[in-house]
Specification:
Layout lengths: L2 E6 L6 H13 L2 E7 L10 H9 L8 E6 L3 H8 L3 E5 L3 H17 L4 E5 L10 H9 L10 H13 L2
Parallel strand pairs: 1-2, 1-4, 2-3, 4-5
């Protein structure tokens, strides 16, 4: 069985993330969405909340599961017996970081390939950081995230006031 890992912080999950995930689900027999626990980023949502926000939007993808992980991605991929890591590329500005990360991961485990997947053009400018900024300032994020995520953002920023 060909398995891939789709890692990220997913803080929060966006339609761009889900688009990349749907593309990966067509290419692989099984996809594990790997929510990063320890990240240099300060997250708005806990790992458990991010996993649940994702799971609520995966009912139509029978070959996808979600779990959190802590530590090196290639070690997690090895533990899961994954053949590949999927990374989304929105714009050229993403490429340098992702390319360097892919080369380092290849150095750490040459048996795990990294594949870059582009989302639909409509999502190429969407990022979790921008979505959080819009939500924090009271803007409508419904075009960028699923309804459950939009509600979670409203609640999170309401609770912080």
């Amino acid at each position: 069985m060909k398995l891939c890992i789709y890692p990220g912080t997913f803080d929060p999950v966006t339609y761009g993330h889900l688009d990349v995930l749907e593309r990966a689900a067509k290419l692989f027999e099984h996809v594990t969405v790997a929510v990063a626990v320890s990240s240099a980023k300060h997250t708005l949502f806990t790992p458990e909340q991010r996993v649940e926000l994702l799971r609520a939007n995966l009912g139509h993808l029978s070959n996808v599961d979600v779990m959190s992980f802590d530590g090196l991605l290639v070690e997690f991929a090895r533990q899961q017996k994954a053949h590949a890591i999927i990374r989304g590329l929105r714009a050229l500005s993403d490429f340098e970081f992702e390319f360097n990360m892919a080369l380092m991961n290849r150095h750490l485990d040459p048996n795990v390939e990294t594949l870059f997947v582009m989302p639909k053009e409509a999502y190429s400018y969407t990022s979790s950081t921008l979505v959080k900024q819009i939500a924090k300032l009271g803007g409508d994020v419904a075009k960028f995230v699923p309804p459950n995520v939009s509600e979670a953002l409203k609640k999170a920023f309401k609770d912080r006031v």
